[in-house]
Amino acid sequence: MYGSRRADAVAVGLLAAAALAGLALWASLPDQMAIHWSGSEPNSYVSKPLGVFAVPALGVASVVLVRLVPDSLTSTPGGVGPTVLFLGVVLAWVQGIVYAWNLGYRFDVGLAVVPVLVGAGLLVAYATTQG
């Protein structure tokens, strides 16, 4: 239980840090922020407040929801803690990608999400050895 609560705290902390980074970068971010890409070109934009706060807020809401759902309704191999931590890391990483792009840094977004895929593979490997 303690490890799961610590994972919750780390995940929420990362999401809060992503939101605070958005506040710190607020003046430098465009009024319309790219949030989705097709290939290397953005194809979806949202207002700055939504671009800064939506992902962190949805991430925190997801952590809370996971804790509100009774254990009898879930069957997460390896435990909920690693999954919650992975969620926080992934969403904070993606938010960082969104900020970087909208600050004018150009890169292959597909390559930028490769660490997420590697992390997902590691999480699945961990879960299958634990579950």
TrEMBL record:
Transmembrane domains' residue ranges: 7-29, 49-68, 80-101, 107-127
Q: Which InterPro entries match?
A: DUF1648
Q: Does the keyword Transmembrane apply?
A: yes
Keyword Hydrolase on this protein?
no
User: Which positions make up the signal peptide?
Assistant: none
| Every DUF1648 domain range | 14-59
Which of UniProt's keywords are assigned here? Membrane, Transmembrane, Transmembrane helix
- What is the protein name stated in its UniProt record? DUF1648 domain-containing protein
Q: Which organism is it from?
A: Halobacterium jilantaiense
